[in-house]
Amino acid sequence: MMVKPKHQRLALALAALAAILGAGGLALSALKDQAAFFYAPGDVAGKPLPLGKNVRLGGMVEKGSLTHEADGVSIRFTVTDGKAKVPVAFRGVTPDLFREGSGVVAEGQFQADGSFAADNLLAKHDERYMPPQIAGKMHKTETLEK
Amino acid sequence: MIAEGGLAALWIAAAMALVQLVLGGSAARSGAEELMRATRKIAVVQGLLALGAFLTLILLFVQSDMSVLLVATNSHSAKPLIYKIAGAWGNHEGSMLLWVTVLGVAGAGVAIFEKRLDGKTLAATLAAQAVLALGFYAFLLLASNPFLRLDPPAPDGQGLNPLLQDPGLAFHPPTLYLGYVGLSVAFSFAVGALLTRQIGPAFARAMRPWVLGAWFFLTIGITAGSYWAYYELGWGGWWFWDPVENASLMPWLAATALLHSVTVLATRDGLRAWTLMLAVVAFSMSMIGTFLVRSGILVSVHAFAVDPTRGTFILALLAIYIGGALALFGARVGTVTQGSTFQLVSREGALVLNNLLLCVILGVVFIGTLYPLVAQAMGQQLSVGAPFFNAASVPVALALVVATMAGPMLKWRKDQWGALGRKMMLPAAAMVTIVVVLLVAMPGTPIVPLLGLVAAAGLAVASIVPLLGRKLRRTPIHIYGMVLAHLGVAVAIAGMASDTAFKQERLAAVRVGETVAVGSFKAKLTEIRPIIGENWSALEATLSIRRNDGDPFRLQPQQRYFSQPVTTTSEAAISTMIDGQLYTVLGASDGQGRYQIRMWWKPFVTFIWLGGFMIAFGGLLAMVGRIRREMRSEDEAE
Amino acid sequence: MRRVLIWAPLGFFALVFALVMTGLLAPSDRAVKSAMVGKPVPGFVLPALVPGKPGVNSAAFADGKPRLINVFASWCVPCIAEAPQLMKLKQQGVEIVGVATADTPEDMANFLKTAGDPFAAIGDDRIRKVQFALGSAGVPESFVIDGSGKIVMQHIGYIGPQDMPKILAALAGVQP
User: Tell me, what's the ipTM?
Assistant: First the structure.
């Protein structure tokens, strides 16, 4: 199976092209199932819910909506963006900056009853409102935000 | 005055880079000896000036000179010395200065030590290096001057940020930068070689130590970064696939492909165009990574610190360098003659397969990282997280492990399937054994980690095979480097698979005196007490833990509250055992005397970082071995 | 075929470049805004933080005069950067009410000495209760309040020279 130099070169180039296309195809097919869309409560109000998909829900934790379950590790609260509200259930350790009245991004799935089951909470990061001139310490905070 | 001195050094260095470009360019054209010597000298001067500017900045931080804006915003006179020094590069301007310093010093290194490459190509390489440096000098001097004065001076600095006082964070970015900049040297070599059309084993051997060095630093940086995120974030995870992590992973994947293809070029004079392409891609990924991190365009949901000017500047540099190099590649590669050929079943064949699979993974990570931008351009908000990256990259990575097993067993140029089959018997036996053991002892193991453990066992055995039948004393050092690195891959995969498959987690709200159990551990919460640190206060839980009926030991996770600025952090307490780690986190109180305690038992999780460091030191061994060999003789037999 | 392959990388790069450029020019704005905009300022009373400067009582906001609430802190670097803009606002007759979060009198006195003092009043919000009540999660943030005590605008982050027209317009829009 000795090949001519010219042919081998073309074959290698085609193999590289195939690899890139393969990566693209693989990525796009996985993206269809796995990409997490970002919603605010107002985006889903009165519309069919994206059930069974991993999504992110962002908004403010409504004042007075935070309740703790008896087990001490589960919480319920309401996320609002001023237009609509979504009840959220979460089990686990809340992030450091999670409080009523502050911003939150919840990762999880919408339930058929319109509520949201969060697997993970990301609190909006504090003290990050840096003017451009003195911004730059971004590495840490980005990592924190996952 | 010191700050002005640093600024002056930076300006002169930029001027030197311009001279280096002109001299190097004409030397590459004419081939005149004097011009080449002058280019080398200028490169050394430029490197020293950049180094001088950087040392000046460090001095300003050590002195806590609050009349310098950068010091005032990023340091504090009460900071420990080590973090004052690290503060010099823990910010945008300083890190860009560090970048250009390493670039300059690396250019000086090329000028001093590179003796093998023909003069014209070397001159062209130094000219290319000067172009790279010029862009960053312009960026520093025009858009991010680190020596800017603050008038009036601040009474004290603002940089007591506790989050940034962490050894991992202090030394993580510079390590990655060393890797990125090492790849810039490979890039310059590729551009130089394209200009003079001198692409062959001599070029590959000149480039190889730089690629190996860059790869060593990238591997160390990624491994340390992973461990840092693991202990600091308190989530028990070791890889989050966030854009910042991906920004360091992508150059690493490209550099891994490059260091394998450059071996083919050095040993067999094959894969010429491909190696050039990879050198360009590897550095492009470093630039793109820096751009993504610095511009902040990828943290769309939390985008506060986006600076369009800065982002545009880096993007423009990126367009000039990468676009220019790719255009040069397109124009010149047609005239690069074909190297030697090989058969499908051969060392080259396996290395090509390795390269292709690495490129597939690189492509997947690249698409996943940038896809939120595509979606945003189409008016959608989304994020791409771990589920995507795992689903798309793990199967390819497993295939890559198989190629890694076979590669070192194959002969260069031409081999037989039968011979390969015989050599694969040993690893295959190890794999079958592991399958049987796991199915019997751990029947519920999920399929992906199971495959990971099997692949790790096969690779661990296969990586030793190249040493069999060799006289160990006479085996070249770089072979040991390869064996160690491949073994490290097996160890790291084993750690990842073991943690994924067998970790146990427990989350509970407990009162003092109550007990939580996870795996074979029982943890009793014996005390919650406040403690005061230097600039923080904390609640500390004392857990008295017993494994089965063993001796009790204590772990003390904390919730820390910092006042300046106001921040809360979880300090996980971790106990490392021979067979894994027990990871404990103290969560919030429920206000009625109960505290959240989260515990993980993570079997063999330490193997991940152990493997990472083995890979890195494998690369270091290979580099040392190659350099020694080059110095001793021109002999190139494998 | 070969020609195409040779130039494919450059083409691909151009594509990615164009994509990133659009991302850079049109940064997404998905910052979570306070739900308090359009609502009256929640009632609160904050004691004075520094001697010689009154505290803040939100009941006094319904006096027909628009004002700016500035949530800030002496330990916050961006707050120093926005001080010149606040001084300009003060010169133009805007009443600026400071809510100092998690701060101490000594630090604040220092801050006012070096960065300037545009504040008509500074309330001591040491436990950050008022900050959260306003729907603010970080510093600096500013709220434009109309004469009836209603929040008409929230500005997240520092006020730069480029933000001045927007702030002034909001203040002017509520002029009685």
Answer: 0.78
